[in-house]
Amino acid sequence: MPKDTGIGASTPRREDVRFLTGKGRYTDDIDVAGQAHVVFLRSDVAHGRIASIDTSAAEGVEGVVRIFTSKDFEGVGGIPCGWQITSRDGEVMREPKHPILAEGKVRHVGDPIAAVVAETRAQARDAAEAIVVEIEDLPAVIDMKAALAEGAPRVHDDLPDNLCYDWGFVEENREAVDRAIAEAAHVTTLDLVNNRLVANPMEPRVAVGDYARHDGSSTLYTTSQNPHVIRLLMGAFVLGIPEHKLRVVAPDVGGGFGTKIFHYAEEAFCTFAARALERPVKWTSSRSEAFMSDAHGRDHVTRIELALDADHNFTAVRTQTLANMGAYLSTFAPSVPTWLHGTLMAGNYRTPLVYVNVKAVFTNTVPVDAYRGAGRPEATFQLERVIDKAARELGVDPVELRRRNFIREFPYQTPVAVEYDTGDYDATMDCLLEMIDRDGFPARRAESEARGKLRGLGINCYIEACGIAPSKLVGQLGARAGLYESATVRVNATGGLVVMTGSHSHGQGHETSFAQVVADMIGINEDQVEIVHGDTANTPMGMGTYGSRSLAVGGSAMVRATEKIIAKARKIAAHLMEAGEDDIELKDGKFTVMGTDKSVAWGDVTLAAYVPHNYPLEDIEPGLEETAFYDPNNFTYPSGAYACEVEVDPETGKVDVLAFAAADDFGNVVNPMIVEGQVHGGIAQGIGQALLENCAYDAEGQLLSASYMDYTMPRAHDFPMFQVDHSCRTPCTHNPLGVKGCGEAGAIGSPPSVVNAVLDALASGGHDVAHIDMPLTSGKVWAAMQGRGDK
Amino acid sequence: MGKVTMTVNGKSRTAEAEGRTLLVEWLREGLRLTGTHVGCDTSQCGACVVHVDGAPVKACTVLAQELDGAEVRTIEGMADADGSLGTIQQAFQDYHGLQCGFCTPGMVMSAASLLEENPKPSEAEVRHYLEGNICRCTGYHNIVKAVMAASGQEVAPVAAE
Fold this sequence. Notes:
The complex is a heterodimer. By secondary structure, chain A is α+β, with helices and mostly antiparallel strands. Chain A has four domains: about 15-20 and about 485-630, Aldehyde Oxidoreductase, domain 4; about 30-140 and about 205-285, Aldehyde oxidase/xanthine dehydrogenase, a/b hammerhead (Aldehyde Oxidoreductase, domain 3), CATH 3.90.1170.50; about 140-195 and about 295-405, Aldehyde Oxidoreductase, domain 4 (2-Layer Sandwich); about 420-465 and about 635-790, Aldehyde oxidase/xanthine dehydrogenase, molybdopterin binding domain (Aldehyde Oxidoreductase, domain 4, 2-Layer Sandwich), CATH 3.30.365.10. In chain A, the strands form eight sheets. A seven-stranded mixed beta sheet of chain A has the order 3-5-1-13-10-11-12, sandwiched between helices. Chain A has a five-stranded mixed beta sheet with strand order 7-17-16-15-8, sandwiched between helices. In chain A, strands 20-28-29-30 form a four-stranded mixed beta sheet, sandwiched between helices. In chain A, a hairpin with a 5-residue loop joins strand 21 and strand 22. Chain B is α+β, with helices and mostly antiparallel strands. Chain B has helices spanning about 25-30, 85-95, 105-115, 125-130, 140-150, and strands spanning about 1-10, 10-15, 50, 55-60, 70-75. Chain B folds into two domains: about 1-75, Beta-grasp domain (Ubiquitin-like (UB roll)), CATH 3.10.20.30; about 85-150, DNA polymerase, domain 1, CATH 1.10.150.120. Chains A and B meet through helix 1, helix 17 and strand 30 of A and helix 2, helix 3, helix 4 and helix 5 of B.
């Protein structure tokens, strides 16, 4: 029977009520009295030298308060990067300055040149149009291979070329991998592109800077997944504001998907300008502006080689990737193609030897950073595609080839640093094959063929490392941050309590699921638990929400803090009942002396903590408030098997997704409804990547897909109902809830099965197409059927 | 600049509007009805859908001054008279038809128009009707279920637990 409360229950989300009635409080809903508005004038060329900026006409526009250019930011730091990668030769990565407003050169379409602050947004826009900027065009580098060619135009004049780093992992294995590939019975090679995407949370970014004259403190309201990270980066590295004089608030945030992790120039600008002008300054991004200023995702060009022995055991994987960094290093950009990608190249398989080489490249494009999955979709896609290609070349069943190589003993130390704690890949595969009814596929294919359509079934596995991350490990790997999480549990005198968490919810429903956990632990009603997040003024230092870490890391901190609360409350209860502490048990919100009918209610104990008339003051302090910081000792490793069934129209190349099934192992599940919702959303983004979405630049660096007229967002009619299952559970062994992350799995696991399915459909029609790069638009699929594909 | 008066959620409301002021700006900035959202600038996303004289309209595509005297309904006017969630709103909560909540007001307003036009839509009809509303969180799965449920049709339970 489904539970109706606590851990395991599909409790309806409490936050829904405000969102469904128009009472949500998103950043753009915040107006601070006296605020002015800023509009950024952005570069319309990809690369050029700024010859002059004439603001004289613009300054005369009605309502203009002040116009800022880079000369107003002397002594102000650049936007910092939070992760340092070391190249194979021991050199640290190249880290060019990322100024708030362009200094001397513009380096991508959308690079901000000037900022106009005016009384209204419309006036600021009018004035921005009146600024005259002369730019001497420079040749742009867009294609990564061209960017690395000798003599290529340089994005940054102070760097010798456009290479950011050249990373090898595991470098000590390189020669052994080369040897294994040279000696293999069979090697399958695949060249592919992991297409550039734009995260596109429905809420565009917004920043409101405020400055308090009376105490010299600054406040920033911003659309962020991690307000403390923004406070630290902006305060310490950009503006020089100590943390005790800086408050960052991220209220209701309308989706993030990674792109709201990063510290952006607009946040620093609004905070800076509010202080300079001594009045609040607000910026609201338009969607077109978002396309050219939100960090993009993916954009890898890869060659992968899979070596197999005569029995079809995987013996080695070698992969070389060019990873686009864009024009500047965004906050976590260097970590995505390296540690979030290379460490996953073992996949679900016992491949003993793996070597990953990544060259990160500067180009005249918008910076690229983490987008839902971040590195792990890129790893999963190439591995699961090359396995399918190998199965085809060898004439074996792709599922059986995977099963032959599954890891079955845990813990399992991979050759790429990470150690998987638990998993059961056969279980999720079995579950998947039943859900998708693989046995019934031939009949369904025949039915499609009777209608002149080609039907295909694609299957793949995935594993990911999430619950990011052990601080000690990521420190060794170049992170300039710790990745613990925090929680303070404040119990009130009358028994209700507030959890102040360093995690941030921007759609994940923490206010509901976190309350379920704490209420369950104490045995009180969920509505007695309030979850507070998103404001550095009232939450402990936390690292925020990304990398599917909230429940595994933030939830663990909350559990630890609640355990401390219960331990103290037990002492108080023992005193009240004049019993030994060890004899007290907490059940259903009541402390009972075991083996007796003597008990005190939770509320009596909390009251005693704050009205300590009868209280063990010599042993413990009054009050009931505890904080815990939790630093995990490993990642968590969700895994699963996904399947996609498509129909291709041979006349047009149009692909219809008929069915999609996902069998995930997330360990224990707190709120199944929320977990399934996360998977649905991830699958939609994965199918979107595979079939619809593409961020495109032309050769001159013009952004071709800069609005919803050009960038194909998935819509309701693009999908069938999804089949999802999370009943295969191998609980995580190292966090107190036994949970794994579920936020990114859908986006990580789904693209390969879509592409595998389309190629399977084409093969059934006699079209031997080895690969089509995403997105598989009807034009590309049709061209491939005519033998005119890229490959 | 001129004064514009409309009946909004049953009440007569007046606020200033420039010639270029969009209905969505007039609602959000003039009346502080911030439930209606702006998610794009090309009339594609549908986060700003409201009802104007009974019809669903993207509030970013009409000028406020052209609507003087119009009757407008926004998400703030969708709850039942006693303040509890209306049928569609309740179904969205029951079937987890929202995550970040940003597209939700527009989704609810479009769904209300659909069910007015077509009280028992098929799954395909729901998906087709909601083409003008983009959601990035849910994959539409639970939105479709919520709309079907709000129309009184049987749908599968919320989670496979």
